[in-house]
């Protein structure tokens, strides 16, 4: 089971970076946004290792509930961004680049 879970650990990175670059308004922001995104996600993975305590084996409630909370927060963030981007796209002038989700 661990082999299957591990193979999908980094599967979300390319779509998230594509989403980020699609919504940048100029190329100058690109040189800062992608390294910041990758760096912050690596910090999250380091912290994630410490949430699975060996004393809580085999259930690991702290690690699993922490992961569930962050997944829920991520889903809510995407929903909020969808609403924001939809509203911003309504106000764009013809020919302007749309916000993508």
TrEMBL record:
Its main location: membrane. It is a multi-pass membrane protein. The chain crosses the membrane at residues 64-85. GO terms for cellular component: membrane. Keywords: Membrane, Transmembrane, Transmembrane helix, Transport. It is found in: Membrane. GO terms for molecular function: transmembrane transporter activity. The keyword rRNA-binding does not apply. This is Major facilitator superfamily (MFS) profile domain-containing protein. It comes from Phlebiopsis gigantea (strain 11061_1 CR5-6).
């Amino acid at each position: 089971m661990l082999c299957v879970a591990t193979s999908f650990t980094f599967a979300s990175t390319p779509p998230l970076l594509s989403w980020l670059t699609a919504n940048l308004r100029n190329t100058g922001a690109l040189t800062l946004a992608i390294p910041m995104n990758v760096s912050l996600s690596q910090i999250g993975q380091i912290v994630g290792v410490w949430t699975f305590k060996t004393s809580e084996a085999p259930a690991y409630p702290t690690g699993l509930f922490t992961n569930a909370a962050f997944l829920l927060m991520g889903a809510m963030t995407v929903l909020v961004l969808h609403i924001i981007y939809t509203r911003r796209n309504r106000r764009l002038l013809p020919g302007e680049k749309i916000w993508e989700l």
